[in-house]
Design brief:
By secondary structure, the protein is mainly α. Helices cover 63% and strands 8% of the residues. The protein has a domain of 81 residues: Arc Repressor Mutant, subunit A (Orthogonal Bundle). It has a 3-stranded antiparallel sheet with strand order 1-3-2. Helix 1 crosses helix 5.
Amino acid sequence: MNHITANNAAGQDFMPLMRELVRAYQAFASLDARLHREAGSGLTVSQADVIFTLGNTPGMTCGEIGERTLITKGTLTGVIDRLEGKGLVARRRGRQDARCVHIALTAQGKALFERAFPRHVAALKQRFDQLDSTRQEQAIALLAEIRAALD
């Protein structure tokens, strides 16, 4: 194992992979944000993430939403507050445990999900369809290996 110094750190063998991974993430995040703006739903990426996560479910706790999204707990509370203010989600206390708060889409939230989610997936599909199914499977496997190495 070689000793990493300030002089040789940038030249490490994994650096091109790391840069490309970061660029891919940035490209995806930029496209995702642009698609949400163009959709005209008035949702931020985080708000759409919550709506899309809650769609086709009876609702979830904040902990469950946090596990399924990339939204931190501190940010999630504000996102849910804003969605509730727009009438898209509702908070409900748990029946067995009143300390547990359940978040669910309202009728308005469900209607937005049913309009916005398929359009968003269709727009992303156009991009990912540029890779055939074999390349997509290879990318999934390689990304899973990278994620495991980073965990």
